Every structure is written in structure tokens, then in C-alpha cells.
Amino acid sequence: MIGTASARNHAFVQAMGAEPVAYGEGLAERVRALAPGGVSAVADFVGGQLEATLAVLAPGGRNVSVADPSVARHGGHWIWVRPDGAKLAELAAVVDRGALTVEVAETFPLDATDRAFTASRTGHVRGKLVIVP
Ligand SMILES: NC(=O)c1ccc[n+]([C@@H]2O[C@H](COP(=O)([O-])OP(=O)(O)OC[C@H]3O[C@@H](n4cnc5c(N)ncnc54)[C@H](OP(=O)(O)O)[C@@H]3O)[C@@H](O)[C@H]2O)c1
Asked: Model pTM?
């Protein structure tokens, strides 16, 4: 498992069991150095990564993006999360079992939603912003 992040988050990525690499210029080369035969799957949570994705995927590899619909024209899947109470309950049970942890970056009261939005717009939040009613 290889995970992209800025340097300040590399130890965090490593603690989750992945090999951290910096994103930006030269990303595909850095991934190729770690996986010379290519990687079997790419999950893009940022967008604008199609070129790097295709450069690192092994033949027959799979790719998915939550932020770039154009991947669908290049053999990938674009997915969109939909509100689903039943699925959320399943996830909550997995959290209760301790098999899934959720990093909470910051918690806001409802009347400070504007501050949560501003934090989100930085593009560098590590984990979830929680709004408490
Ligand atoms: N399809 C869906 O259902 C769905 C759901 C939620 C969000 N989204 C979309 O997903 C995207 C991400 O949203 P988000 O709120 O989860 O995260 P975000 O706050 O935009 O990004 C958070 C993470 O992305 C890393 N990052 C920033 N620029 C990067 C780059 N160029 N390459 C690789 N990593 C980079 C940051 O790492 P560092 O802090 O270490 O730089 C940070 O950990 C948005 O476009 C959003 O609209 C889609």
C-alpha cells in the first residue's frame, strides 16, 4: 500500500501501514520506484490525477476516483457517496468493533459551520470535520 501526503503527514500514513510518498511533480516516478511492475489499484481522493494514475497502474489494474469523472472514460470508476442510514449503521458497528478508526480533525458547534467550511476549503484537513447540533 502506498499513500500520498505532504511531508507533515508521512508518519501518519506510515502508522496506518502504508508507504508514504509526496504528491506533485514526479509522483508517478516515486510510485514506480516503490512498485516497478506497477500497482494493482489506484484510489484517487483528490482529482486531477488521471495521468499519474495511468502511469503507475499495472496491466489489468483497477482505478477509482471520488473527485474526477473523467476516469470513467479511461477504464476507471467514478463513485459518489449517497446518504444511506443502513450502510452508515453497518459502518458504525465496524467502528464499535474497533476495526475502523476515524480521525477527527476538529469539532464545531452548528452555529460555527462557516468556520468548518473555511477549514475544509484549505484542502489539508487530516480526517473529518464534525458539526455537532
Ligand atoms: N464522490 C464523493 O462522494 C465525494 C465525497 C467527499 C468528497 N469528495 C471530493 O473529494 C475531494 C477531496 O475532498 P476532502 O474534503 O476529502 O479532502 P481535502 O480536504 O480536499 O483533501 C484532504 C487531503 O488531500 C491531500 N491532498 C491535497 N492535495 C493533494 C494532491 N494534489 N495530491 C494528493 N493528495 C492531496 C491532503 O494531504 P496533505 O494535508 O498532507 O497535503 C489532505 O490529507 C474533493 O474534490 C471533494 O469534492 C467526493
From this structure: 0.90
Closest residue by CA, ligand 1 atom 18: 123
Comma-separated ranges of CATH 3.40.50.720 domains in the chain: 2-78
Q: 13: which residues sit within 8 A by CB, 6+ positions away?
A: 3, 5, 19, 20
Going from the Cα of 89 to the center of ligand 1, the distance in angstroms, rounded, reads 24
Instruction: For a ligand 1 pocket test, name from 12, 46, 51, 65 the mutation site with the most ligand atoms within 8 angstroms of its C-beta.
Output: 46
For domain 2-78, the question of CATH label 3.60.15.10 is answered with no
> Pocket of ligand 1, candidates 68, 82, 124: which has the most ligand atoms within 8 Å of its Cβ, to mutate?
124
pLDDT digits over 10-30, tens only? 999 999 999 999 999 999 999
Rounded (to 5) percent helix, strand, coil in the chain: 40, 25, 35
Give the integer Cα–Cα distance in Å for 15 and 7.
14
- Tens digit of pLDDT for each residue in 25-53? 999 999 999 999 999 999 999 999 999 99
pLDDT of residue 67: 95
